[in-house]
Amino acid sequence: MTGRSALSFGIKTTPAQVSYEEIQRVWREADTVPEIEHAWLWDHLLPTFGDLSGPVYEGWTLLAALAAQTQRLRLGLLVTSNRLRLPAVLAKIATTVDVISHGRLDFGIGVGGIPGPLALREYDAYGVAAGAWRDAVASFAEACTIIRRLWTEEVFDFTGQHYQLKGARCYPKPIQRPHPPTLIGGGGTATLRIVAEHAEIWNMPGPPHNSVEHLSQRSRVLDEECAAIGRDPEGITRSAQIPLSYEDPARTRDTLQQLIDAGFCHLVLNLPAPYPADVARWVADELITPTLDRASHASRL
After folding, report:
1. CB of 170 within 8 A of CB of 95?
2. What pLDDT is recorded for position 143?
3. Which of 117, 191, 214, 254 is the most exposed place for a label (fewest CB within 10 A)?
4. CB-based contacts of 44, cutoff 8 Å, min separation 6
5. pLDDT confidence of 247, banded at 50, 70, 90?
6. What is the average pLDDT score of the chain?
7. Correct CATH for 8-300 of 3.90.79.10, 3.20.20.30, 3.40.50.720, 3.40.50.2300
């Protein structure tokens, strides 16, 4: 397995069926817990679980608010849907969040998912054209190129199949140079080709959504895509997200260990709502510290 880096742990607070104040409380607490290095939101405009008429918050707006109220956490969306915003506009939004956070943005993005009933409901409600999957992947590849160029070049024109820009310019630039790290989510082979070309971090949902064996197989495909373009796969950190269990932390620790053994070192714990009091400290004490201790012990054997 390639793409190994130092272990890092983060949390994800899905901004649906929960209040802004609850998410704010968790992020402020997590910012004081050094074992938690990063925090994430999602990118949907309607709920995809629970009460389908319930509350959900727009991810980048919420991220900007939380960036202004934290000092240490790296932060991002896991992941932005490329279907929902024009890439040049998204580059400007992300730059603004990087400035607000003083250079703490990890730029998470993906194609936007194969449209199922819930996604189509969201697209129809907000006037988003679902289109063919191959077109969504092709437009995503163009978007990654546009965003990177806006962050690193002064002014340029772009004529692609899906996007056309004239006099494209993004100023100020992001705080992070040459640009914020890009995390791409998704496991299809066409997406992994784009990961190889553009990403510093690659993420997939882990158990129970995908088995560790499936993630390992997809990671090997990413290695092959890197080899095909002459990129060292060690330059791409392997990331996975899993839901945690408040009732059975041992099960969550076992899943984390399986992912670490498979070479996934950027690990995101999805916190179910409602969030218990002092949940960030609980995550550190019950999940992260025991996992780090176990990994340290194994490395000495």
Report:
1. yes
2. 98
3. 117
4. 16, 56, 59, 81, 122
5. very high
6. 95
7. 3.20.20.30
| Three-state helix/strand/coil letters over 150-161 | HHHCCCEEEECC
What's the CA gap between 93 and 11, in Å, rounded?
22
Instruction: Give the Cβ contact number of residue 271 at 10 Å.
Output: 24
| SS3 state at 94 | helix
Over residues 25-70, the pLDDT tens digits come to: 999 999 999 999 999 999 999 999 999 999 999 999 999 999 999 9
- State how far the Cα of 91 lies from the Cα of 132, in Å rounded to an integer: 24
Whole-angstrom Cα distance, residue 164 to residue 111? 19
Q: How many CA atoms lie within 13 A of 223 on its CB side?
A: 12
Phi/psi at 160 (5° precision): -115, 180
